[in-house]
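QA checklist item 7 of 12: single-chain prediction sanity check.
[x] sequence parsed
[x] length recorded as 323
[x] structure emitted
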Amino acid sequence: MQRLLAFVAGSVFGGGAIYALVKPSAPATPVSQQQQQQPPPPPPPVHAHGMPEFQQPFKRQVDSSINSPADNEFLKFGNPGPVSDFLLRSRYAASYNRALRNPNWVAEHLTQGNLKGSGDRASSEFKEDPAVPGPFRAQLKDYYRSGYDRGHMCPAADAKKDTESMNETFLLSNIAPQVGKGFNRNYWASLESFVRDLTRSFDDVYCITGPLYLPEKQADGKWRVSYEVIGSPPNVAVPTHFFKVVLAKRNNEPAVALGAFALPNKEIDNSTPLSDFVLPLEAVEKAAGLQFFDKVERKQGAVVPLCSKVNCTLEHDSWKKKK
């Protein structure tokens, strides 16, 4: 099973790019009978305050002064960061990466009710986000003649509540460069429609979307992360992949359904089954450096695979009819 997971992850990410995330750990070294019979090592000496002595040097790691830059001698003249701007909008929340000029993630809560409204994308325009400081802001000119679409992380169709909600999805802090033909305008759009349609089967659907920058094995056998940067001067990173992580819940069922998808930022043939892009949630977490739905206890009976509750297939171009 572990080998199968590694193979699937490799096929999704191109040449086994995240094999290390799902590969089996090395087998444990057998313990000899003599080792088993040896008495356990003595406990470490205990400090007068009840703390083992060997832990004392690490006490400063949780000292409040470490978390208070103003009172810390090393950060007397300021904390360099990194800073991830937290952006709370009408229909989504987002974390923005100042270095890559892309979102780290964008989180949504979808129901049948909140997908309805008067918002119309025909009157919306892409805009730079004034909530992001100027030097770190993605700009409209960065995308000009770049060859990439301005791809929504929170889709416009998810924010029909009103005109303001719709307009917020066109802020560049909710956007990342995506391949247009075969991806943003096709396969990715079908995946977005699939997530919206989950509200027909579940009372609440929570979706987190974002970019990935994954390594690829080179001819010399080494793994390297390589991605394009667009703009003049180059400002905005072009992700190699995108993820969608979904939690869906029915009011009459205690268990929640979890699903994780990761797609390469390239043209994908519509005949490719969505199951090709299903990954263990933990693999996507390791690749993104994020924790998803960490308040959910991941134990048997509390969580079930999303694709065991619904048919994980895409109805291509159906989203065009629902505009």
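[x] summary fact logged: Confidence is low (pLDDT under 50) at residues 1-8, 18-36, 44-66.
[ ] second reviewer sign-off
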